[in-house]
Design a protein that fits this description.
Blueprint lengths: L19 H4 L12 H4 L4 H8 L5 E4 L6 H11 L3 E6 L5 H16 L4 E6 L6 H5 L2 H5 L4 E6 L3 H4 L2 H5 L2 E4 L5 H15 L7 H11 L3 H13 L8 H7 L12 H15 L3 H13 L4 H16 L5 H16 L3 H15 L5 H15 L15 H5 L40 H22 L1
Helix pairs in contact: 10-12, 11-12, 11-13, 14-15, 14-16, 15-18, 16-17, 16-18, 17-18
């Protein structure tokens, strides 16, 4: 267990072979590739270090972007003792030992930077255990997480730490990392331009993954320059990052929904394909696509709802992968359909009014009177049967007597709702005419 709480690596490197990712670990924050939005002179960490005041941090980002490296270098540059633990392997007794060692260190004039990898895997009670030690300065906490801190970390922890977002590495960043690897290895990668670009793409923004791929490539004994086709035959493309219950799930469905709403079938199909490639359940997509029809298209194209249900049923009959084409067709149809959220807005307004006037009874003239007592109470008195009225429209009030009339539904001038807009205006005019004749 002692290794779990070890400080910074010893000054003399261990003997034996070391992975390329470890050999290329930066020695200074200035050497970290990418993450300028965090490490730049005017960025949060740059400003903290310049002011000599480092606060507890939560580093949020995908794998292989430098979270552990940044934490180590922060400890070195602020002269803090570096302790690294993983929430996966650390229990409450282990944490107590960490905190006790940090207290002893502090009593001797040395601060502790505690780096907690996968901090989101600690439960809420375990996270609360950090608070008193953060508050009294026993530890400076740097947590790393691939999950959204807003959902996974205690509000109390978040209020005492600054969340820094680390981005997946760009192609230019990965190219710079590949050049460093070539310098360390003392040789160029045996790849032509196309194969080199393919290798960068395979890493998918993950610097550690790129270095692991480079190690595989340089381990091959043949000296010939590899093409894209040869490289693809020797290396498997990494699976697309996608967590069906995490941030990527919600990010991608949001991207799909907004692409449909934005009438962009190409972008919508791309995000649809990304989710399928990531292993998303097509039935979930069918449900969400149907929701898009009723929320963003609605009566501007009443057929859109039916298209989604038919696509859903087709998928159930055909299964994967053939049935997914029906869902793709629905995505294209929704993207190109006229858009309206008028019903959605009207529904929310009506729900708000129901909260405000929820105890008001209907006016008596629209109540049925199946008993004599109810007739004596005036139920149904004055009800105008619309079929007997001129134009089949009585113009009576159907809201509670004490509630002002409202106009929740405001159809847009697009698609089929253009006709509905004319109808609502027509009935509004008739209603005004009927009511004017009663005054």
């Amino acid at each position: 267990m002692a290794d779990l709480f070890n400080a910074s690596p010893p000054e003399t490197p261990p003997s034996g072979p070391r992975p390329l990712a470890d050999r290329l670990r930066p020695a200074r924050l200035a050497d970290v590739i990418g993450q300028e939005q965090v490490l730049g002179a005017d960025a949060p960490l740059g400003a903290m270090l310049a002011a000599g005041s480092l606060s507890s941090l939560i580093l949020w980002g995908p794998p292989g972007v430098g979270k552990t490296t940044i934490a180590r270098l922060l400890a070195a540059e602020t002269d803090l003792h570096f302790v690294q633990i993983s929430a996966i392997f650390t229990g409450v007794p282990d944490l107590r030992k960490v905190f006790e060692a940090a207290k002893m260190r502090r009593a001797n004039g040395k601060g502790t930077l505690l780096f907690v990898d996968e901090i989101h895997r600690f439960n809420k009670a375990q996270q609360d255990g950090f608070l008193p030690h953060m508050e009294d300065g026993t530890i400076l906490l740097v947590g790393a997480t691939t999950e959204n801190p807003s959902f996974e970390l205690n509000a109390a922890v978040l209020s005492r730490a600054q969340v820094l977002v680390l981005n997946r590495l760009k192609s230019a960043d990965l190219e710079g990392l590949a050049e460093r690897a070539e310098s360390e290895l003392g040789r160029d990668l045996p790849l032509d331009a196309g194969a080199r670009a393919a290798l960068i793409e395979m890493a998918d923004g993950d610097g550690r993954a790129l270095l692991n791929l480079i190690e595989q490539v340089t381990a091959w004994t043949d000296d010939k320059v590899l093409t894209t086709e040869t490289l693809a035959s020797r290396l498997m493309k990494r699976a697309t990052k996608y967590d069906k219950s995490g941030d990527e799930h919600y990010n991608l469905i949001s991207a799909l929904h907004k692409s449909v709403r934005g009438s962009d079938p190409d972008a919508a199909l791309y995000w649809f394909a990304r989710m399928l490639k990531g292993g998303e359940d097509p039935r979930y997509l069918a449900r969400r696509i149907t929701r898009m029809a009723v929320e963003d298209i609605a009566l501007a194209d009443p057929q859109a709802h039916r298209v989604c249900l038919d696509a859903w049923e087709t998928y159930e009959r055909l299964g994967s992968p053939e049935g997914e084409l029906a869902l793709a067709q629905a995505v294209v149809y929704l993207s190109l359909a006229p858009k309206s959220n008028a019903t959605y807005v009207a529904y929310k307004a009506a729900m708000k009014a129901a909260d405000a006037f929820g105890s008001e009874p209907p006016p008596k003239h629209i109540l049925n009177a199946p008993t004599a007592l109810m007739k004596d109470q005036g139920y149904g008195d004055g009800y105008a049967y619309d079929h007997d009225a001129e134009d089949g429209f009585s113009g009576q009030n159907y809201f509670p007597d004490t509630m002002p009339r409202a106009a929740y539904y405001q159809p847009v001038d697009r698609g089929f709702e253009r006709d509905l807009k004319k109808r609502t205006a027509y009935f509004a005019g008739l209603r005004d005419k009927r009511n004017a004749g009663k005054n």
